[in-house]
UniProtKB/TrEMBL annotation:
Source species of the chain: Rubroshorea leprosula
Full protein name: Fructose-bisphosphate aldolase
Keyword annotations of the record: Chloroplast, Glycolysis, Lyase, Methylation, Plastid, Schiff base
PROSITE patterns per the UniProt record, alphabetical: ALDOLASE_CLASS_I
EC number from the UniProt entry: 4.1.2.13
Gene Ontology terms, MF aspect: fructose-bisphosphate aldolase activity
Superkingdom, natural source: Eukaryota
Lineage of origin: Eukaryota, Viridiplantae, Streptophyta, Embryophyta, Tracheophyta
Keyword S-adenosyl-L-methionine: no
Any Pfam family matching the protein: Glycolytic
Record's subcellular location: Plastid, Chloroplast, Plastoglobule
Function text: Plays a key role in glycolysis and gluconeogenesis.
Length: 393
């Protein structure tokens, strides 16, 4: 039933294009009075800045460090090493990450949670200034999380558009220059046409609002790894989702040169009986992107989605073995932080070792962005998968 509804995905869009927004009265003329329409240019005077920010983040050999976990999710990470979920402990962990010497050699942007954007080091230096000193662009998570979508197949929609313009303006004043909005699509749940359309429309409205306030929007419709479906099914869904996303981005006059994408890699479901090789994942993922993503988009910054640290890096490396129309890089959270957290253990004496662990992972993915990575010498810990069924951020 869900698949049947899914095949009708583009019907409402195609029916809407070019149609008058009112009902035709019986016997009335079908001729419409022509009039001059002025279309607004999104972002106004900020257009050049948006384009420059996007290009800066999509720079060779660099990618994004995602540390925008909600307080609840960060608390789960801290609990895994025996720490309480307090603001002091969250600040200490994020200080460890954001003050790592030399991080800017491999990282071009860092996505922060709202709490972190306004925090400082124990010495009083703002985190945004720590990033700027390393030539890393500060970013901010702006969505308000997932809630059930009524009328769907037990699917979700992402909230946060209310008040987004004013919040974005404040984030810009605080130093943020790009934004992130994560919504999800579940293959086991269909996905329904309603859920896909809601995800695409929400992303497009968020992107337009972000650009109006000087923030480069990261567009992220995450196709969850949950399920036992083959890679071909993931490709089919990904093409449908990105088709809808770009349709609504265009309808909202979003400047493609001033956005970044954060897609899932095209892989089999996490519970599928056969695992795909990095070359196969690269082939299917790049096929999808070339069919759906205009070359005007400066950067594709992949999410790791529960892959192991090594898996995520190997797959990225495979996608950079030949030139692409866009900068193909990473925006990883767990795939950059897992070893770091376990090395730190909340102990001050382990900070330097933990920062070195972060640089190891950041450098590995930098090499993968350049197509020069080798997994030789990687630890067993880095090879462990991190998939969590029904994962929430």
């Amino acid at each position: 039933m869900a698949c049947a509804s899914f095949t009708k995905l583009n019907a409402p869009s195609s029916q809407w294009i070019g149609q008058p927004s009112f009902a035709q009265r019986p016997g009335s003329s079908t001729r419409l009075t022509s009039r001059r329409v002025s279309l607004p240019i999104r972002a106004g005077a900020s257009k050049d800045e948006l384009v420059q920010t996007a290009k800066s983040i999509a720079s060779p050999g660099r990618g994004i460090l995602a540390i925008d976990e909600s307080n609840a999710t960060c608390g789960k990470r801290l609990a895994s090493i025996g720490l309480d979920n307090t603001e002091t402990n969250r600040q200490a962990y994020r200080q460890l990450l954001l003050t790592t010497p030399g991080l800017g050699d491999y990282i071009s942007g860092a996505i922060l949670f709202e709490e972190t954007l306004y925090q400082a080091t124990t010495d009083g230096k703002k985190f945004v200034d720590c990033l700027r000193d390393e030539k890393i662009v500060p970013g901010i998570k702006v969505d308000k999380g997932l809630v059930p979508l009524p009328g769907s197949n037990n699917e979700s929609w992402c909230q946060g558009l209310d008040g987004l313009a004013s919040r974005s303006a404040e984030y810009y004043k605080q130093g943020a220059r790009f934004a992130k909005w994560r919504t999800v699509v579940s293959i086991p749940c269909g996905p329904s046409a309603l859920a896909v359309k809601e995800a695409a429309w929400g992303l497009a409205r968020y992107a337009a609002i972000s650009q109006d306030n000087g923030l480069v929007p990261i567009v992220e419709p995450e196709i969850l790894l949950d399920g036992d479906h083959p890679i071909e099914r993931t490709l089919e869904v990904a093409e449908k989702v990105w088709s809808e996303v770009f349709y609504y981005l265009a309808q909202n006059n979003v400047i493609f040169e001033g956005i970044l994408l954060k897609p899932s890699m095209v892989t089999p479901g996490a519970e599928h009986k056969e695992k795909a090789s990095p070359d196969t994942i690269a082939k299917y993922t790049l096929t999808m992107l070339k069919r759906r993503v205009p070359p005007a988009v400066p950067g594709i910054m992949f999410l790791s989605g529960g892959q192991s640290e090594v898996e995520a890096t190997l797959n990225l490396n495979a996608m950079n073995q030949s030139p692409n129309p866009w900068h193909v890089s990473f925006s990883y959270a767990r795939a950059l932080q897992n070893t770091v957290l376990k090395t730190w253990q909340g102990r001050p004496e382990n900070i330097e070792a933990a920062q070195k662990a972060l640089l190891v992972r950041a450098k590995a993915n930098s090499l993968a962005q350049l197509g020069k990575y080798s997994a030789e010498g990687e630890s067993e810990e880095a090879k462990k998968g991190m998939f969590v069924k029904g994962y929430t951020y």
